[in-house]
Batch of 3 targets.
Target 1
Amino acid sequence: MSKKKKFGNYKENQISRSEEARTVRRIVAIILISLILILVVGGISGYKYIKSALEPVDPTSEEDINVEIPMGSSSSDIGSILEEEGVIKDARVFRFYTKFKNESDFQAGEYTFTSSLSIDEVIESLKNGKVLQDPVYTITIPEGLTVDQMAGIFAEKLPIEKEDFIDRVNELEYVETLIDYYPSILSEDILSADIKTPLEGYLFAATYDIYEEEPSIDAIVEMMLNQTEAVLSSYMDNISAQELTVHEAVTMASLVEKEAGSEEQRKSIAGVFYNRLEIGMPLQTDPTVLYALGEHKDKVLLEDLEIESPYNTYHVASLPIGPIANFGESSLVATINPEQSDYIYFLHDEEGNIHYSETLQEHNQLKNQHIN
């Protein structure tokens, strides 16, 4: 074959490949433009849908819609009820919107709405508890209580039996359903055979309004778990930053709650606890001994410290297996934001003050000064 013919074939191949490359580029460009258009159109459509869902169902309506929000309802439950009654357009948008805005503390009860309300107006009513009736019961659960103590309060204030409450919160099948329903705060850690009461520490200390004459135990438990979830959700990133699981954070917060009486003390004691854990020293906190014993005592004896229990922090060089009481929000804040110090020891004097020290020698000197 002549050089001229070879050159001609080469040139034809080059032109062919060039045309193929241009065709491929055109196809790729068309695909990319199509994908971008799909994303843009989808985004605009989604935005318009969400914007529409946040607006009133019927801006001109003046008709009253009576709605009952049962005690223990989650934001998902409330959204479904409101959509079904025609108060809002979309329950899913309501649920995501309340989570995005970190809205919680919705009040159970009977409400009067209209379909002319925006979602923000509905949320405000639910938060303020603008209901048609006063609560039948108002019950305050203080910080630092065990499930057993809380069951006693409910039995005293409500038409339920203490034993029935305790039996229900210890019922394995029920606890498993709660783990499925509250996966952000409850884990299988609470199902350990060594855990005394699975929901210990997870029933939040607060004042609760109850609008039913005979509320169920399930409704009470879920009302409290909703409050716990609302509080913990604000601190999830901080808990992770402290390299804690939710269960560990709740456990530590319960120890801080039992050992301290003020916000300043809580942060200092949390710092001491972390210092001990860092050097592999047992936490050695007396409230865990009392919880392991299952009784209240004014003074923990040396023989009490010997009890072999995964709750006894004289026996285990780690956090106890689970919480020993419920906690207040300030104890949780101290848990995720402890005071930095070199203190390893602390002791309470008879006036409620706490004295800290870096060495055992200093600690013993403080004992001689402040404890008779």
Note: The chain has 14 helices and six strands.
Target 2
Amino acid sequence: MRRMMYEAQRALASPARNPRMAVVIGRLLGIAFIVCFGTGLYSHFLQEPLPWMRFPTRPALLYQFSQGTHIIAGIACFPLLLAKLYIVFPDLFQYPPVKSFLHLLERASIALFVGASLVQITIGLLNTYQWYPWPFPFREVHYALGWVLIGLLVLHIGIKLPIITRFWNRRGDAERDDDEHDATVAEDEAVRLWGSRRPSGVTGRLIAWIDATPALKPTATPAVSRRGFLTTVGVACAAVVGLTAGQTFAPLDALNVFGPRKKGVGQQGVPVNRTAEEAKVTASALATGWVLTLTAGDVERSFSRTELESMPQTEVELPIACVEGWSQLAVWRGVRLSDLADLVAADTQASFRLTSLEERGSFRQTEMGPEYVRDPLTLVALELNGETLDVQHGYPARMIAPGRPGVLQTKWLSRIEAITA
């Protein structure tokens, strides 16, 4: 068994498989995971804020940038994680498989980290397409796995810190010529395993028999050069990012081949995530008796769409930026929420609860902190891109505010309530 494991490692030897390369790719992968974790936390707390939390409303494109970066970093994890697995694959054939408790902890943590990482980035990618072929709730599991992965990443870094420190700024074994096989290391490994270039006695005769039997002797795979490997990883990252990032960043829109949303495609030039038919609000949204009700304490007022249109109108340019990573800048026109808040004498530090005409849905009701309520860019929107708001975009009225996820830009508004602490 020892001999077979050694031969497997020797057959898998490649200039691209060395500690220095593992550190380089691991560094990039670690950065991608940390970026995903940080931007993911920001998105999570925007949707489920703690009572004391307040969020910036400027720049107005903040959430578009942060969530777009979150999705891009997550997509880049695919080639980076596969590259890291390629580098360390020969380590699976170490003998003995477990050398100590620390080694067992290391191997177990790596197995758990790889498995959790693959689940995390896969369900995250499928979420961008709004496809959920699993029985568990996506948001809760994705959030919990984020914490698990960061904990495992810290543990892995702690265990591998001596190697990381040694090869962080050094080429180490990677200084050899790209196309040269690592014969010297293979021979040194034989010495480590057997105590000599080849053991004597029965064991030596067994090894000689294995060497003379083609069916039992592993065939060496073609070596991959370091430059070729890094070029492949770089091209793969550029491809997966470049061919999807256009759904968030306009300069790359022409390259958006695989992104689930395309800029400018949809009613009034804006994509739609949840349609009126899916929300089952078409009849109630188009009903002639619709009114928007505002309450603050004992004060309650209702406004028809005609009354809202007769109020001072404000035009703003803000994006719809969704958690799936796509965004679309658009021109909105409507009544400032702060003006409506003043009409019901709402406290300037009050949060608002927004209620949609939807009867079901995770975001049928959302809450908006005072930093958004009092921002002059926050509107009860009545028009989109110079036209009456389409029912797919929230007719007769919807909320639009700077720096908020699209799921919180409540469509088909029916009620707005002031919440005092």
Note: Confidence is low (pLDDT under 50) at residues 172-199.
Target 3
Amino acid sequence: MAALLEEGTDLSCVFYEQHTSLQWHPGMLLDMTDLQVPFLADLVTFANPKSAFTFLNYLHEQERLYAFYFFNRFDIPRKEYNAYLQWVAQKLSNCQFGTRIDDVEYDSNKQHYIVTCIDTQTEAVHYVTSNQIVLGTGSTPLVPSIH
């Protein structure tokens, strides 16, 4: 969602992640294991094949496109897909890593949400207001109560 919104809209958005870097399936990046979907099922290709965030563009920028093509096997190793996701995450201006969301409160007078953000390194607190929010619960759902 962050990659698609970065290039494709005029929406003002930010995505917060409490980890300091992208963590895709930690502990599951085993040698000799491949992604179970084709490389075209990357973050953006079906929605926007011209995106700078496609897996093919990642390979091109890493100077590995020809090697991937001539390998003649279009499965992506899980470690390679993780590297691709980290490459995209580093390019996104709308992703804020190392920020924990501590509270979400709805202000009915102003009709917006007040989000309490905490820097996981310094514990500094700042607040963000938004008309809309999207929650990513992770593998184990944890939906905070909204006051």
Note: The beta strands are 15-17, 95-97, 99-107, 112-119, 125-130.
